[in-house]
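call fold(seq) -> tokens
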Amino acid sequence: MTIHTDPPAHDLSRLRIDRDAAPRLRWLPWLSLVVLGAGAAMLYPRVRAYIAIRQAPEVDVAHVTQFVAAPGVSTALPVLVASGYVVARHSSDVGVKAGGRLATLKFEEGTHVRKGEVIAEIEHADIEAQLEASRRAVVEAEAQLAQASAAREEDDRNVDRQRALARDGITTTATLTAAESAAAVSAARVKSAEAAIASAHARVKVAEEALENTNVRAPFDGVVIKKRAEVGETVSPYGVQGQATREGGAIATIADLHELEVQTEVSENSFAKLKSAMPAAVTLQAFQGQTYKGRLRQIFPSADRSKSIVEVRVSILDADDHVKPEMTASVTFQEAKTDADALPKSERSASDVILMPKKALAEAGGQTIAWVVAGGVAARRAVKVGADRVDQIEVKGGLLPGETVILNPPGGLVDRAPVRVKGS
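ret:
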């Protein structure tokens, strides 16, 4: 049996130095600490800026704009804004004159029609039969007139013979009197036949009018903007069940799209700002980036006492295919042309009007200010303002076109402090 024992603790023969081993890098941990410290020092400003931005207030902004007057429009700018709907100046709910079942429809939505063109027909076989019977009655009455005329001529000749015989004493007075009476009766029959012909012609005209009333014609040149009936439906001049009372038997709505206007309402408090034929700018809700020229065409002669409003109509002068009836539109009424506008262009002021939203103004230390945003930093700016222009105000100094201003500036803003713009 073999017993192994550990060498004694005081055995130093096992201790030796390995002179071939690589030397230890005692400076490496210190180098790592230096690199980490340098990286942290470089990142600290960015992290601090990021945290500052995330803690900055979030604001709504708008741009300062410069208004350049269109030809014929004063730089005096807007005085009132109203909203309404696009309508055709000439529009008609076309209905039928006689009730019946629709036999044909010659239109769809968007069909262009000409004045007097037949766009629909009602079944009229019975009226055609009546017309044919009336025409036959005319022929019969004419034949009766010819027969009565021939009898009258014969009776007139007989009267002439009896008068000649009476002068010679050959015939009696009674015979002459009988001949004259027969001639008078024949003349009366001719008049009756002539009246019958006139009556027959009148019945023909009535039947022709009745037949014409089965045709629905376009009242003017235009476009069908709404189809209200289909072939086979029974229609009436007074409407049928399921049809609106206002439509009253209408089968189509036709509008002249060459004359479009905006129907809008103005409150009585603002009504005094309007003047006849004053210029306006029209903007469609569907095409916010496009503005159309307008002119105030009509101010209704009475107000609505329940709403305290006055209805007005604004003609769209340069409407294109984008403008369609019943679209929502906004109208900005502008000041009428001034005497300065009548001057030659070289004599007018070269400066255009600069505008900013009223919501961007604030008061600080008795001074009117605005907060301008540039590079994510808000800067306080003293502003000199002019006349009010609806929801905007003229800028006389302190701001330049294109600068970004804060709307409804929150309290606690600090000059040159970062801010966050909503949506960015």
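Residues 339-350 have pLDDT under 50 and may be disordered.
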